[in-house]
UniProtKB/TrEMBL annotation:
GO terms for biological process: heme export. Keywords: Membrane, Transmembrane, Transmembrane helix. It is found in: Membrane. It is a multi-pass membrane protein. This is Major facilitator superfamily (MFS) profile domain-containing protein. InterPro entries: FLVCR1-2_SLC49-like (IPR049680), MFS (IPR011701), MFS_trans_sf (IPR036259). It comes from the Eukaryota. One of its GO terms (molecular function) is heme transmembrane transporter activity. Pfam families: MFS_1. The keyword Transmembrane helix applies.
Amino acid sequence: MSSKDTEINHLPLVQSTSGHKLYKRRWIILTLYILYAAINAFQWFEYAIIANVIMKFYGVSSVSVDWTSIIYMALYMPMVIPASYLMEKLDLRKISIIGVLGTATGTIIKIFSLSPGRMWMTYLSQTILSSMQVFILALPLRIAATWLKLKSMCFGGFGTQLVQAVGFIIPPMVVKNTDNLEQISDDLGVLIESLAAFTSVVTIIILVYFPARPPLPPNQVICEGRESSFLKSLKRPLSDRSFGFHAVAYGISIAVFVSISTLLNQFMLFYFAGSEEDAGRIGLIMVVLGMAGAIVFGHVLDKTHSYKRTTLSMYISSLLSVIAFMYSLKYRSKIFVYISGALVGLFINAYMPVGLELSIELTYPEPESTSSGILISMTQTLGVIFTLLLGWLFSTVGCFWALASMVFFLLVGTFLTAMISNVTKRQDVFKQELIKLNVCKYVVVFY
């Protein structure tokens, strides 16, 4: 199957004359994708959420622990071009095997890092895991094109996000803060070896079972080839002022969320001693509320098609929620920290799919993969910068003013969002052609 057959977001929709069929095993394919994507996502904040314990065990600084999360963003840009080339040349099975083997390798390497002085092996593991993110993020539309009705990929997004949320709460529950380094090593061993065993099982199943494609496509809708220059499709959105504003604003919003998530453990311990598990619970709530918000605001977009208004409203709400979080920490009100943290997750995490939908409206008829790729690249770049900046400010001027810097950036993002033109290019075309698409409003994006 060529890339023209599978990259549905590049291509117009036509009716198939050769038959179509939905196979029951599509749910197995989707489940396998969710499992290995979730295993990878679980390990993004695995160390950052127990930063104080990792610092003690390996004898490293907080910045060193932050880099176990930052690596996930820093490697996206250098990996995206070679990964995109492979995605064009290889079928779904081969891409999935690359992703799961890389994830398994990175996870298993951590088993050999369970000793003080082996932090470098942790970095090696995180480097391999993060390099697989490019393949994982590109697969949902590929799987939808090959096996599913498009809306079924909603379950893939929610499944991965849910396990990422669990990744906030399990490490603090398993790895306890103690002065006994042997006990920490044992706790880390339980966490890592359990994950490695599970990853190995998923890897074997994918190697044995995961097919390249079904005998027949899943929909009456199939893909009709169209020549498209990648450089041209990249240049056109970048020359659009409104899309440029949106790309920067989108990157700011998600980068703020990632940087706060990375330093959440350190923020909580700064104000509340022994609150490692509270940090994990707040991280869990932030992601779960974001999933719920994606459903709600996706429904709003379905009904109103008010893309700019919805996006701007969510951006303002995100700004206010971070301000509330900042003051809740300052005044040491744990209950309000939970509430404001939940609101941060509700508005910023749910902003991801809404922001992607707006980008598609602004750049139509350019491929969705182009606009989303630009947004993800902006997110990863700013995510690295903001996390390093937030960590530096936290260590020099304290938590309150560190978070105040994020409020400033969100204020800039709000202004940029207000400057976006209120255009609905895709919806205008669909109305003219009397086409009604039922597209999933939740997209998996690891910031």
